[in-house]
Amino acid sequence: MQNITVFVNGCTETDTTGMLSPPTDGEYLKLCKILRQFPGKFREYYRMNIKAFDYILDSVKDDLQGYTNFRKCIEAEVKFTVALRYVLVIVVRININ
Questions:
Q1: What predicted TM-score, i.e. pTM, was given to this entire model?
Q2: What is the mean pLDDT of residues 16-36?
Q3: Mean predicted confidence (pLDDT) in 28-55
């Protein structure tokens, strides 16, 4: 089987299956993995420590992880990060008002 390079809606992948994968340059891959090296900054960004984040993520990981034959799914940890940041922004806005 020959290699296939696909670019659709910001997703790229070169493999033998032709499956699409999420982009590899998103917020999570650029910032959030680096934050794990700095517990103080991690706490400032997520409003919780790394241990609490991992505990909650492990609890909801199976519910967040998707499966499909058409493309590689966004990782549960990335979905959780985006959802958590969204909720934190709303909470901050409510507290300001």
A1: 0.64
A2: 67
A3: 87
DSSP 26: S
**Interacting residues of 20 by C-beta distance below 8 A, sequence separation 6+:** 6, 8, 11, 12, 13, 70, 71, 72
For residue 22, give the DSSP letter. Answer: -
- Retrieve residue 70's tokens: 């058409």
Tokens 């390079």 found at: 5
User: What is the domain partition of the chain in residue ranges?
Assistant: 30-96
- Tell me the CA distances in angstroms from 24 to 72, 84, 96, one per residue in order: 12, 20, 34
Tokens of 96: 């300001």
How many beta carbons lie within 10 A of that of residue 38, not counting itself?
12
DSSP code string of 34-81: HHTT-HHHHHHHHSS-HHHHHHHHHHHHHHH----SSBPPPPHHHHHH
Whole-number CA gyration radius for the chain: 16
